[in-house]
Amino acid sequence: MIPVAVLTGFLGSGKTTLLGHLLRHPDFARTAVIINEFGEVGLDHDLVEASEESFIELQTGCLCCAVRGDLALTLEDLLRRRDAGTVTPFERVAIETSGLADPAPILHTLMSDAGLARRLALAGVVATVDTINGLATLERYPQSVKQVALADRLILTKGDLAQGQGADLTARLAALNPTAKRLQASFGAVDPAHLFDVGHPASLRAHDLPAWLGLDGHDAPAAGHHPQISCFAILRDAPVKAVALTLFLEALAEHCGADLLRLKGILNIAENPDRPAVIHGVQHVFHPPVWLDRWPSRDRRSRLVCIGRDIQQVWLEALIHAIEAEVAEVAAVGA
């Protein structure tokens, strides 16, 4: 599987500067970078090795291309050229969104396109946040709030210019998305590995799960609350029937839709208690459950982490209980 990182961030947050640094980093070699417009990213002439249509191969080993129309078609074309040996045999993909873009449709494409899902695995969503103007941006622009809420990692930029302004922003980010790891960029630069180490169910190892869920040795992430966004965790001792899980996810997709920004979790399925199921959803689209070979620890409780807009924890827990009760009643009648 080829890992894919989605790089998002609001206008002026330092995303383009960060990407420029990454394209020059030797550890970022053999990376295919999909960007909106080449003009947004400064590609020095001495970096360019060859150019073919919208594909630019860099001397550092990176391959850049612009989105022309549908993202799925661009990715399919990239994979086809890689298989044919006509482009650099890239080992990872980074997709840079525009500053005003909602990253959710990109995630939907990666999760729901069966052909792409066989070759590409979402390595995570990375959002850049301007330390100086981030608070004002979050107050004024709903797009920036969603970019932060969907992220697995937040990269704080311009910290060298902020002069102690970061404390309030850090608190706001923790309220919006307490499960996302935060990292400070140094003068616009960051280790490329930090774009691809946040994990995803398609490629997770058992010991990566606590960090991906935002647990990091704790039972649940600290609950975050924001006027628009809430984040909470649900823990359950009893195993969940497979059919109950299916009905639960279908109900969420139907009734919550765009308000369910992200749902991820590890579940103890009654029919297969020795192999936990890892689930991941963005709005109404859910990745097929991934079955791990073993539990990451002795703790076999089910854990769900939800980031949503106007979704209450008590409602979600009541929904689970109602579905489980209905499944049990049907099973009893059938017996």
Please tell me what the overall shape is: globular
CATH architecture designation of the largest domain: 3-Layer(aba) Sandwich
**Major sheet summary line:** 9 strands, mixed
By CATH, the topology of the largest domain is Rossmann fold
Low-confidence stretches: none
CATH class of the largest domain: Alpha Beta
List keywords for this structure.
Hypothetical Protein Yjia, Chain: A,domain 2, 6-stranded antiparallel sheet, alpha/beta, globular, Rossmann fold, 335 residues
Task: Describe the model.
The structure is a single chain. This protein has two domains: 2-195, P-loop containing nucleotide triphosphate hydrolases (Rossmann fold), CATH 3.40.50.300; 207-334, Hypothetical Protein Yjia, Chain: A,domain 2. The radius of gyration is 21 Å and the shape is globular. The longest helix has 22 residues, at 313-334. The chain is 32% helix and 26% strand. The strands form two sheets. The protein has a nine-stranded mixed beta sheet, sandwiched between helices. It has a six-stranded antiparallel beta sheet with strand order 10-11-15-12-13-14, sandwiched between helices. The protein is an alpha/beta fold.
Structure, briefly:
This protein is an alpha/beta fold and 335 residues long.
Strand and helix map with partners:
Blueprint: E1 2-9, H1 15-23, E2 31-35, E3 48-52, E4 55-58, E5 63-66, H2 71-84, E6 92-96, H3 104-112, H4 114-117, E7 120-130, H5 134-140, H6 142-150, E8 153-157, H7 159-162, H8 166-176, E9 181-184, H9 209-213, E10 224-225, E11 230-236, H10 242-255, E12 260-267, E13 277-282, E14 285-291, E15 302-308, H11 313-334
Parallel strand pairs: 1-6, 1-7, 2-5, 2-6, 7-8, 8-9
Antiparallel strand pairs: 3-4, 4-5, 10-11, 11-15, 12-13, 12-15, 13-14
